[in-house]
Amino acid sequence: MLPVVEIPNLTKAEADQRAIDLGIDAPTIEIIRQADGLFTVRATYPGGTIIPEATASVPDSNAPFELNGLTREAADAEKAFFHDSGATVDIIAEPNGLFTARISPAQPPARVVPPPPPPVAAAASPPDLDGYVFCLDRIRTERRPGRDFDRTVSHYQAYFNRVPIPDISGMAVERQGPDDNGPTGVSQHRRIAAGVYPLFVHAGANGKYKTAGYAKPGQVGVRAWPCIAVEHTGDRSGVLIHCASGYLMSIGCINLTSNVANAQTDLLFSDSWKRVTALIDSIRSHLGADFPRGENAPLPKTSLVIRSHL
Fold first, then answer.
1. I need a surface site. Which of 122, 166, 235, 292 has the fewest CB within 10 A?
2. How far apart are CA 165 and CA 147, in angstroms?
3. Would you list the domain boundaries of the chain?
4. pTM of this prediction?
């Protein structure tokens, strides 16, 4: 039997919007009129598909792993980072005075009942900008029970010279608002401001994130993770588009994912990793010989556009 998700009791406008949201993952979509005049959206997925609304565990997302040989400061930083995703992190002292972070990723919920969709759909028009444009349309904020901060949910779509690139689309999550590129945004881990930003290739000094030379195959416990850097962000630094798992992994970065039904939807690392690497490969393909060979260099005529519909 093929995996099926049904969302009942929607108005026609809600059903149309939910069909668009679910269509990100390319299932067969049906909108069925109910006897009471409301509608059900039925999404039928290919066999073996991991359905976002009924998230299943996958080995690279949920298997415990350890990061060894860390200073206390580095161990505490890893604990804070993975804690945001919902993981349990234990810090263990090693005999040599260093520390191990033992990380047990959160097990996703067995079933999620999606809420009604937002009343205003994200704009589908391309930005008024040539070159390669990665466009993020923010559509809502949400908070999972038990979490101490909201996450911001967006649709994303890439364009080249204002023409949509069909394979580079999906959803994304960031930290809570309000928009803030200043010192308070740093201290409160807020999302960056809506606007236009240049994109760069990245190779961090700590080896955790790279645009080229990232670890393959992608595993949550193996660095470096693939990424694209966002620059000209005011007081914010180290803002990246990168992969993640769980609720979110960000203090200002952008995590790519498939359909986000509601606050209970977890990101799957394997899916997120594929989306970030697809973005990198797409930019490389479109830029051709202009794709930089060096590290931490600007991507010519390549931009991030963030638009708010909140």
1. 166
2. 35
3. 4-49, 59-104, 132-308
4. 0.76
